[in-house]
Write a structure and sequence with these properties.
Blueprint: H1 10-22, H2 35-43, E1 47-49, E2 54-56, H3 71-84, H4 86-99, H5 101-116, H6 120-129, E3 150-153, E4 168-172, H7 174-185, H8 188-199
Antiparallel strand pairs: 1-2, 3-4
Length: 201
């Protein structure tokens, strides 16, 4: 058996895989499993989860070669790891953002472009077409946190991102984007809001 980290030839690797398949699985004799049960589960395409200590369907595992834990168990482990180190992660993230402010903003913009199916050139051209401001109210500052205009799209076409790119409309500030989204999802809201304002004039 080669040591961990040592490279082996393709022939040796295939022999090791064949030998591992012939050997009885390790869970036989444990957890009340018999050899017949284990062989049937493996033949059915189910995989043993080392954390659940049970066989689970193949679609509950990732796409990697080493299928050791199901997605649910991996998720639990990641949550626990983050909870133990949440303060340190937060401090490291904030320190990196402070030191790389421009890079962080550029990454956020690139992520926005990709999620809406547009490019940086499209954004700059659309912003110039709108006079450098919101398409509705003309505000040049979208909100108090950033200088990046919100990309508006037709929610009836693509409810979740990434968008197809064909339903993108224009660039809006935070307030107009929120109002447009509410009007689009609930047409009666505008009439009720106008009636409410008229009642207290």
């Amino acid at each position: 058996m080669p040591k961990k980290g040592h490279k082996v030839s393709e022939e040796t690797r295939l022999r090791m895989i064949t030998g591992a398949k012939k050997r009885a699985p390790r869970m036989i004799g444990k957890y009340g499993l018999t050899e017949e049960t284990v062989r049937e589960e493996l033949a059915a395409g189910r995989i043993w989860c080392s954390d659940c200590k049970s066989f689970r369907d193949r679609n509950l595992f990732g796409n990697g070669e080493r299928l050791v834990r199901c997605k649910d168990c991996c998720h639990k482990r990641n949550i626990g790891r983050y909870a133990r180190n949440a303060k340190r992660y937060r401090e490291e993230r904030n320190a990196w953002r402070s030191a790389n402010l421009e890079k962080d903003r550029a990454a956020k913009k690139d992520w926005q472009f990709a999620s809406y199916g547009v490019t940086r050139e499209w954004y700059e051209a659309k912003l110039a077409e709108q006079g450098g401001g919101c398409a509705i109210c003309g505000a040049t500052k979208p909100d108090n946190r950033s200088d990046f205009m919100y990309i508006d799209h037709r929610h009836s076409c693509c409810e979740k991102r990434p968008c197809c790119g064909k339903c993108v409309r224009g660039l809006l500030c935070l307030r107009c984007n929120s109002f447009v989204e509410r009007l689009e999802s609930n047409r009666d809201w505008a009439e009720k809001a106008l009636a409410y304002l008229a009642r207290y004039q």
